[in-house]
Amino acid sequence: MNIKILTPEFVVFEGEVKSVLLPGKNGDFHIMKDHAAIVASLIGGKVRVFTNQIDEKYEKHFTKENEKESVFSFPVKSGVIEFNNNKGIILAE
What is the residue-wise DSSP string for 36-68? Predict the structure, then answer.
């Protein structure tokens, strides 16, 4: 599935991922391939991207969370996600 993470200043990430874990108002939620269409608001926390690797141009925005699995995180204050047809856009602050 393809995820794009945007802030008002720059593109944080764009690429193929296995899944993404997001901080929602009612707790963290995980979006995987073939997830139902969703629009949801995000609260402060970390967006965690599960992918084999992150392109060099996006690496500086992420922290690698786990050496065994390829989990990369990006802190957000708030935001919204729209996910449909295995494509997601996260607008983050």
Answer: PPEEEEE-SEEEEEE-S---HHHHTT-EEEETT
User: In Å, how far are 8, 21, 28, 50 from 17, measured between CA atoms?
Assistant: 22, 11, 18, 6
**Half-sphere exposure of residue 2: CA atoms within 13 angstroms, side-chain side:** 6
Q: What amino acid is encoded at 20 in this protein?
A: V
Residue 3 makes CB contacts below 8 A (sequence gap 6+) with 13, 14, 15, 17, 20, 49, 87, 88, 89, 90
Q: Two tokens at 20?
A: 């993404």
Decide if pLDDT at 67 tops 80. no
What does pTM read for this prediction? Answer: 0.93
